[in-house]
Specification:
single chain, about 220 residues, alpha/beta, six-stranded parallel beta sheet, two-stranded parallel sheet
Length: about 220
């Protein structure tokens, strides 16, 4: 099972979902690899709590520089789009190297989870976005959306774009806290308007086993 996890935007639960899938696969006796190749807003002096650190913990791996280098090689300090964050550091993302890194990570013998950065149209360099990366990798896609005001438009727009690329995908509606919006209603509305499988994911403590992750794994494997 190899999959790319993207989202309608930032801070909607993409890393939460990737970690949950990694932990579910470990419960099933499989040893997943979860990577987030590009990260912005990363503090090299205090990596604890960062997305790469959370992914390493979900895989049962030690959080240290070696581990972070292995799963998140393109890291930038400023929390903006990768092309912008890179430019602020007089750096750039070599797209050919990024593709090669992701393809090398994908394995036929172990599940590989590739987490994107931000939403599916976030710029990676002057001409390419996360969507280009997903298209070139040609992996099934998990689209993560929240349950905030505006989710319906954001999620349906993203699903339309993904359908146009021909990438098989599922949608996961990750409950957004303190919005006052019923996540179940959001998931039902999106599910009624698209042919892709749509799952409602309630936010629980990271150590809690949520059976929904098992359903999501089965759906990915059926794509």
């Amino acid at each position: 099972m190899n999959v790319f996890i993207t989202a309608t935007g930032t801070e909607v639960g993409k890393t939460y979902v990737t970690c949950g899938l990694a932990m579910q696969l470990r419960r099933e006796g499989r040893a997943p690899l979860a990577i987030k190749p590009v990260v912005s807003g990363f503090n090299e002096q205090s990596p604890v709590g960062s997305d790469p650190a959370r992914l390493l913990t979900a895989q049962g791996r030690e959080v240290d520089k070696t581990g972070i280098d292995a799963i998140a090689p393109w890291r930038f300090a400023t929390p903006v789009s990768p092309n912008w964050a890179a430019a602020l550091e007089a750096r750039s993302i070599d797209y050919t190297s990024l593709i090669a890194y992701c393809r090398a990570a994908v394995s036929a013998t172990r599940p590989t989870l590739i987490e994107g950065i931000g939403g599916l149209m976030v710029p990676l360099d002057p001409t390419r976005t996360v969507l280009d990366l997903m298209t070139d990798l040609a992996l099934p896609v998990v689209l993560v959306a929240g349950s905030y005001l505006g989710t319906l438009s954001h999620a349906l727009t993203a699903l339309t774009v993904l359908r146009q690329t021909g990438l098989p995908c599922i949608a996961v509606i990750s409950e957004t806290a303190a919005t006052g919006i019923d996540a179940a209603c959001v998931a039902a509305e999106i599910g009624s308007r698209t042919a892709v499988p749509c799952f409602l994911l309630r936010r629980t403590p990271p150590t809690t086993h949520d059976p929904c992750f098992g359903d999501i794994v089965r759906a990915i494997e059926g794509l």
